[in-house]
Description:
two-stranded antiparallel sheet
Amino acid sequence: MCQYTNIHHMRKESEDFVMQKGTTSAPAPQKDSPFIPTAKAQGSSGSGSDKGWHLRRSDCESHKPREKWYLKVKAWLKDNWGLVAILLLAIPMVCYDLRYEPYWQDELTSYYAARNIMVHGYPGFPSGFVYPKGELYSYILALVMSIFGTTSKIVPRTISVTWYLLSLPLLYMVASKLFNRRIGWLATAMLAFSPYAMIWARQTRMYEQAQLMVIVVLFLFFRALQHREQARPVYLAMLSLVVAYFSHEEVFIILPAIVICILVGSAEGPYGIPAVLRRKHWWIAALIATMVIGTQLSLVYLTHPPALGTDQSQRPQIQLTTDNIPYYFSLLFIPKPIKDSPVPWVMAQPLLIVNSLLALLGCILSFYRKNVFARYSSLFLLISSCTLIFAFTMQADRYYYPLLPVYYLIGAYAFWKMLDTVWKFAHPLLVQPLQEYKASGSLQSLPLPVNIAVRGTAALLCASVLLVPVLPVSNFNLLASRIVGAPYHRHYADYDDAANYISRHMQQGDIVITIAPAVTILYYVGHVEDFFSVDRALFLIEQDGQLVETATGAHPLLNEEDFETVLAMHNRIWLVTDNGGYQGGVTRNGHFIFPPPDFRLVYEGYGSGVYFRSAGR
């Protein structure tokens, strides 16, 4: 029962509440700060702060019956059923038969780094080489394998599956909070059913963890920019950046974007001086993050063995270049058709031109319409993409993969903006009389057939955006291909089958030489003695006065004379090749003759081949 001492006390509480609300709320941002919305914009976007409201709950409120939990769940499902539908489709697609694909060399790199942590406490390879890359992922992988075992492919790959499934509701919540639920749903669906997500979410690699952390970094730095007077959001944002970097070092491509977004977004006053430059906690947080990342880079540099030669593998990874422009333009806009080939990792690139055009349009609209979060996200995406294209010399779709959430978010924003524009134009023509349109602009004012046609058209357009990158289904997802009855090819070579053949016929004293990645042959066969080394100086180290490969400790065959020496010392020799790029590199310019004399082909699989020589026969 409510009890108050007197009317004066009630008035006093009311006056204190009003004064507290007016005096303790966060100071209004400067009007000319491009990334800080006005109070009205904050209220409409749902990102405003209620931190100044501290009125205590009265005795009356404490006696109000609490809402049942299942009613809250029902209300949440009513508003967010689209996310539930996405998850119900994504979970079986990403979890179906995780053992289907064989390990490839990068997965085994992470696998052996984690195994070394379990034994010695630091990430490394069987050769003893320290692997200072993706350290946080390696330690998480080591922890999971130490609990659930190391023999199954399912256990290591569930980490990426988990990060993938967590990234979907996270992207949905971020987009819904800072845009709206429609944009959040479409962006999440585009990410969930991306062909690249269907590949990398099923692998023992750190790319999903890096992608998840990019979403966290994007949101926390925007929040820190909104509340730049407070220290806690800034420290949390810097912590997320450090975690993202230790998840995958190639995330460095977002560092220039963060710096520029923060400086541009906090520009205030007539001269546009960034406000963060006058805040001590921003400097302290940045200094701590720089020291942590700088320490890791120093350890990488100091512990790396000296270079033993120079070839094209020694090209600096970070330098200004324009060589990447054709590759990434083809990746995002016009994928090159490929011919049928036995090389499994030459995959048909997804058709991303629709998504790329939407993302490009979204970047333009964000600056034209001056949407706060869209402008921030667009600048983040553009600068990160330019850093990758013009400052990082490596070329692969997986380097762009961490940026996909932002890429799809801007594309979803452009899609719904276009639909809104078309709707504003078409609605007066559909609603009769015109006075009804002026009184109610809702869709319910339309006749039922027109209502169904409008909603159906919007649904078809959404489906088109989602389905275009999916085709062909045989390159999309294993479960989807099984359901529709389409053929599905492995994305990586079947060295597991090749190794099974070798194991059935191997005798004591046999040696294995590889043209394929040595770490893969080591895992499947159990040992590898030598490998053909052409333009592989980056992967050679000195150990006990001999040259060995960084991952396996196998000895390099640098020329034909080295190969002839091995042939003279051993009778039974197995030679494993990839029937593709590695073999072509070895035989280019006559470095080696392939197949070598006296070797006969005894097994050929999907992207693999096994040759055998026995001097006694």
